[in-house]
Amino acid sequence: MERITDFCGRNERYLWVGILILYLAFIYHNSLTPAAVSSQQSGTVLAMLRSLAAKLGISASGLTEHFVRKSAHFAEFALLGLLLWNCLRSFCLTTPLWVTSEAFMSVLFPLLDETVQLFTEGRSAQVDDVWLDIAGVCAGTLFMVLLWVLFGRGK
Predict the structure, then answer these.
(1) For residue 47, what are the contacts with CB-CB under 8 A and spacing of at least 6?
(2) Which pLDDT belongs to residue 130?
(3) How many Å apart are CA 29 and CA 21, to the nearest integer?
(4) What is the dihedral of CA 10, 13, 19, 22, to 10 degrees?
(5) Distance of CA 142 to CAs 79, 135, 146, Å?
(6) Cα separation, 134 vs 146, whole angstroms
(7) I need a labelling partner for 12 at 20 to 30 A (CA). Which of 35, 85, 120, 146 fits?
């Protein structure tokens, strides 16, 4: 059966699994942040972005805390998709097993993230956030597929 990669280094595998675990801990730590603190953090980022836009002469009137929060969700999980791709690549799985594993984890990790929020003060699980997170993981994964194809690894 065809394998997506021909490099299966044990040390690389340990490195990617470690990075993935640390990044998941970062994501879930963010989900355990109480709503008031999380909102304050988003407000700080919003103020910085508005200030930057003003310095660049760009109108930021449509930029809201909601947009900042949703963008952060998407970006956080896009990076997860990138890391997940590299982690699974290091295991030298057959193509069908790799795709199945990537798809399963691309849904599992966002579901766990929203579940964690059920136990956090002032937060709740949102179905739209699960979908947004899944879209982020898919975007990160597709970015890696694009790089993989562009640099000839798909041949």
Answers:
(1) none
(2) 96
(3) 12
(4) -90
(5) 11, 10, 6
(6) 18
(7) 146
User: Taking residues 131-149, what's their average pLDDT?
Assistant: 95
What amino acid is encoded at 95 in this protein?
T
Closest by CA position to 130, among listed 80, 73, 84: 73
CA angle 107, 112, 113 (to 5 degrees): 100
Q: Among residues 72, 62, 89, 84, which one has the least CA distance to residue 30?
A: 72
Residue pLDDT, tens place only, 4-41:
444 566 788 999 999 999 999 999 999 999 999 999 99
8 A C-beta contact, residue 40 and residue 100: no
- Indicate the DSSP class of residue 94: B
CA distance 89 to 4: 7
> CB under 8 Å to 69, separation ≥6 — which residues?
38, 42
In the chain the first and final C-alpha atoms are separated, in Å, by 15
